[in-house]
Specification:
Layout lengths: L2 H21 L3 H19 L3 H11 L5 H24 L5 H7 E3 L2 H8 L5 E5 L18 E6 L5 H12 L3 E5 H13 L4 E6 L12 E4 L2 E4 L3 H8 L3 E11 L2 E10 L9 H16 L17
Parallel strand pairs: 1-9, 2-5, 2-8, 3-4, 3-5
Antiparallel strand pairs: 6-7, 8-9
Helix pairs in contact: 1-4, 2-4, 3-4
Amino acid sequence: MSKYSSMRFLLYLIVYPFLWCISMLPFSILYLLSDFIYLIIYHIIGYRKKTVRENLALALPHLSDQERLVIEKKSFQHLCDMFLEMIKTITISKKEINKRFVFTNLEVYKNLEKQEKSIAMMLAHYASYEWVISMNAYVTFSAFAIYKKINNPYFDKLVRTIRSRFKATLISNKETIPVIIRNNKSKIMSIYGFASDQSPKISSAYHWQLFMGIEVPVHTGAEMLAKRYDMNVIFLKVKKVKRGFYEASFEILSENASAVTNYEITDQFLKLVEQQIYETPEYYLWTHKRWKHRRK
């Protein structure tokens, strides 16, 4: 084991017991801790405050500086909540997570499963995208969540282990196509979760579209793979009801993706994400540099 690998392993050994202890806290204490972390992250460290402020000014120019400041603070409060909710997932029971993350129209999804076609589920980094894994309590298809691999292999394994508690298999961007090909050949009906609202590498940008009034490159992988492998496409809209409680609803984007004009599904997805953001902007992930590549 190299010195660098040893350091990463040592960091994991130090941090994991701390994370496990946090996950055992009752929610009332957990959110008090979140309030404390918010004070440090926002008021003392100022983590990505400049990025958030710039993003809000770009995406919500119709609001006043004071209105955007309110959203900015609320977004950091939500970010801290979501971070601790992610840690809570280490030990949360299935009963508890199903109580806190409710699906309002499961029949829409269930009817798609009856068609015996795999499903591409598109969603945004909005409200709680971490607890979407609770959906696996209601899914009969094999479930795969596409994610960006963590550099530290020990923490990466931890994230995979947490998700596997709820029957979700994490696959990295590079693993996605091989897994879909293998499942398709083996006729394994699957659902794949694509968080498709963030910025792609400019070198792999095949399509540009207006997002929050700004022309940017967009991820098209979910749509293109759905076309290639004849998958149904759905959108999962997540709503934060109150602190620690969420509701999610399904909307069909296409039941015949190959017959739809290229990028139409992706553009429809972006419009639905915009609606989410305009309704309650503080629950979007503003810390990401979504508009770093844009056309004037």
